[in-house]
């Protein structure tokens, strides 16, 4: 609630709980504007979990975060190595909610960080482990044992 008493602006909120910061601005004409800034929070239900893949597969990791203003997402490897996108491209960071990796090899294995930022501290990250799946025989396949 906002009111003016004796030329002073008063602001009161009842039963309001949130993590963030309320910004009140006043322009030279005396108009007030409110904005609520909320730090980023990674939505685990819409974000990839640890991944086990086979060599040669293409994989897309996804990361979604909420906050106000809307968070931006970037990806890094946890070990500091470059991200191998494909045969001809390696980068330190990738911007965007999706990290697309082509023709997976052992060079891709390790932990990747999805980092969400929006200018409201703290930034948050989620670690996604990327590992090589052993080649397992198809169901019903038998091996002769001597």
UniProtKB/TrEMBL annotation:
Keywords: Cell membrane, Disulfide bond, Glycoprotein, Immunoglobulin domain, Membrane, Repeat, Signal. One of its GO terms (cellular component) is plasma membrane. Residues 40-131 form the Ig-like domain. This is (Mediterranean fruit fly) hypothetical protein. It is found in: Cell membrane. It comes from the Eukaryota. PROSITE patterns: IG_LIKE. InterPro entries: Ig-like_dom, Ig-like_dom_sf, Ig-like_fold, Ig_sub, Ig_sub2, Neural/epithelial_adhesion.
